[in-house]
Amino acid sequence: MKIPIINSKRQYETIAAKAEAAVLEVMRSGSYILGANNKEFEQEMCNYLDCKHTVALNSGTDALHLALRALDIGEGDEVISTAFTFVATSESIGIVGAKPVFVDIDPDTFNIDPAKIEAAITPKTKAIIPVHLYGQPCDMDPIIDIAKRHNLFVIEDACQAIGAEYKGRKVGTIGDVGCFSFYPTKNLGTMGDGGLLSTNSQYIKDRVIALRNHGGAIRYHHDEIGVNSRLDEIQAAILRVKLPYIDKWNSARREHAKLYNELFKSCSLIETPKELDSTYCVYHQYTVKIPNRDGVHKMLADAGIGAMIYYPIPLHLQKVHEKYNFKEGMLPITEENTKLVLSLPMFAEITEEEQREVARVLIEAVEKSAVTA
Ligand SMILES: *Cc1c(COP(=O)(O)O)cnc(C)c1O
Asked: Could you give the domains of the chain?
């Protein structure tokens, strides 16, 4: 049985009639950029997240880098984040000319370890970017506390975590800014690129509204160098069709995670994901830790199971940051976990039969490689 890590087509089929009607309506309307769907979608996202403002953008990467721009973070500044994430997190710090400062992770959650943040703060530090990786909320209370004491901004990278909650609040609304991605494979994915920034600050909202449209709030009046980062109306219309389903889809992912946890109980070599108390994790990925990860990964691929390594190289060791001369060994927990993690097929529409097959193949592969090791 071939089981991909995500099956976007299966989800599409559940909303096809509505999505096609919505797209057709946009095409027939003649209004393709910054139209009614953008406005409505931004309002619907404010309601969903329970925050004052949202700004729809072209990508999650733009949400991150425009958040930094809006906070006037750039050349000579430092931003604290994690190296155990997708490159867009530190790339956005680089786009504005600031330096990423990486802090090691908590091995139970894969997220930035709040206990290690303070040691990384210097007079140049301006912000912290916690990443809610795999849909798992960061421990936000200590992060907010540190930020307050050191006068730092908190920009939440919630690109993998729409709908996730920390102590009853949606992630992305706890810090100064939240950043979301609607890349097709995200929990709320559109059919192209898309992103959104959330904030309770009128100032940040106004800045980003201008920055996304060539640096001017009034047409043909340009106050600063901006970018073109608008969410097109077709994507906004598709997202408006899908948003009402996100809670149902996230809760299906949680049920699937529970079933995987159950199925892996018989195999002590497989470490299943943990959840912090008072969090609602939305399982963008279901990620296990296993011995002989690369060998097992290959066995799964040979059996048609689409498991993936997120991410094979931590960001401090990526060529893009070589000018900082970050060294191997600098983030031991990040580096160790990079070698252990494997993300399994996870999407709202996965069937129990498929999950049982994934579990059967994984357990067999892990046990086989334990014997030969
Ligand atoms: C997907 C992702 C991004 C970037 O989002 P895009 O919409 O692809 O630009 C940023 N951070 C994380 C953690 C992501 O997973």
From this structure: 8-103+111-244 (3.40.640.10), 245-372 (3.90.1150.10)
